[in-house]
Amino acid sequence: MANPISRAWRKLFYQDGGSYFLLPKVDSAFPDPPNEGPFGDAGPPVWHWIDRLTYGGKVATPFFYTIIGVLLGLLTLIEVYFFTIDDFFGSFFVTVMLLLALLKFVIVVAFFMHLRFDKNLLTLVFTSGFLIAILVFVIMLSVQGQIAPAPLVAP
Amino acid sequence: MAQAATVQEQHGHIADTNTGISNRKLLMWVFLASDCLFFGSFIATYLVYRNESLAGPYPNEVLDIPITSVSTFVLLMSSLAMVLALHYAQKDQLGLTRFWILAVAVLGAIFLGFQVFEFTTFVNEGLTIRSNLFGTTFFILTGFHGLHVLMGVLWLLGMAFAHFKGALTSRSVEDLEMAGLYWHFVDIVWIIIFTVIYLIGFSDGEGIETIEHAASIIGG
């Protein structure tokens, strides 16, 4: 029995063994009927809903893309509304805003850029660049004392 | 090779490569990954110098959230138009493809118009690239993003022109997919910029360099 980390790794990055990215490698392997989706029974329920709309990611319809566009617009409205009540969130304001931005980022990359329906290699390529950028970002802020600011000292 | 030849990508292209992905598409994703570093560096620089400006104007004096929210919405909708253009191109519906490509270019141009308006307003209020650290980091970051949008608009207008000249072929679908990936990337970069600079950074004010300077602010 694999440990939880191995299972999570397999679900995230493998194209077999009930992973979230269970994409068929050949055309004949697509499910029939197609709206059963390429992800099988794996993944959270929302994937099944997306699979029905996109016929398993094979034929995403304009309706599906419009829903995603409306969702992005709503998330932007929510962001701006939260901005107007930033005192309500106190010190969590930055965290909440960054999470909302990350959600919009992932939605665009996954559905508009088709990464959710494409091959894993492309996800790995882009995620690698993004993670290196985040790493450089964190190191730079740490070195400059932005994450844990140094106390004010007279020169 | 036989396996590669049987691999069919999701959008109808058969890529005769070892990865099963067309080399152009793979290279575009590598480019986008490297562009993450490009913009990541500028955003990190902005954050490093956040609250460090010793002279105004400061973010809370010049940033206009309602206008930028509208321009953000315009850019998000241009992404929707882009994905619809690609969808209809894959369906060989050339009329709708042209319409949505032009819609993306127009929405991109509107976004650029908002940016020009914003930059002009800032300059009129005394914020230039040389005014303070906020001005320098802000104009470089958003300026390079605007330059990316401009490149995208020109790219799409070129494609639309080619389509009107009847140059749309099955290979053009992949061309449009490349342009689409680039355009969506420009969109996701703006999602981060809008949140970090405008919504989170709005409350940024005067920087504190030394205890004496802090005392002068408190005292005066």
Detailed description of the structure:
The complex is a heterodimer of chains A (155) and B (220). Chain A has 155 residues and is mainly alpha-helical. Chain A has 6 helices and no strands. The N and C termini of chain A lie far apart (60 Å). Chain B has 220 residues and is mostly helical. Chain B has a single domain (22-207), classed as Four Helix Bundle (Hemerythrin (Met), subunit A) (Up-down Bundle). Chain B has helices at 2-6, 23-48, 59-62, 65-90, 94-124, 133-164, 170-200, 211-219. In chain B, helix 4 (65-90) runs antiparallel to helix 7 and helix 5 (94-124) packs antiparallel against helix 6 (133-164). Chains A and B meet through helix 3, helix 5 and helix 6 of A and helix 2, helix 4, helix 7 and helix 8 of B.
Short description:
Chain A is an all-alpha fold and 155 residues long.
Low-confidence stretches of chain A: 15-22, 31-42
Shape of chain A: globular
Tell me the helix content of chain A: 55-70%
- What CATH architecture label of chain B applies? Up-down Bundle
Number of spatially distinct domains of chain B: 1
- What separation lies between the terminal Cα atoms of chain A? 60 Å
What portion of the residues of chain A fall into strands of 2 or more residues? under 5%
Number of strands of chain A: 0
List its salient traits:
heterodimer, A: 155 residues, mainly alpha, 2 domains, 59% helix, globular, B: 220 residues, Four Helix Bundle (Hemerythrin (Met), subunit A), 8 helices, elongated, disordered N terminus
What is the strand and helix layout of this fold?
The complex is a heterodimer of chains A (155) and B (220).
Chain A: H1 4-13, H2 45-54, H3 62-84, H4 86-89, H5 93-112, H6 120-143
Helix pairs in contact in A: 3-5
Chain B: H1 2-6, H2 23-48, H3 59-62, H4 65-90, H5 94-124, H6 133-164, H7 170-200, H8 211-219
Helix pairs in contact in B: 2-6, 2-7, 4-5, 4-7, 5-6, 6-7
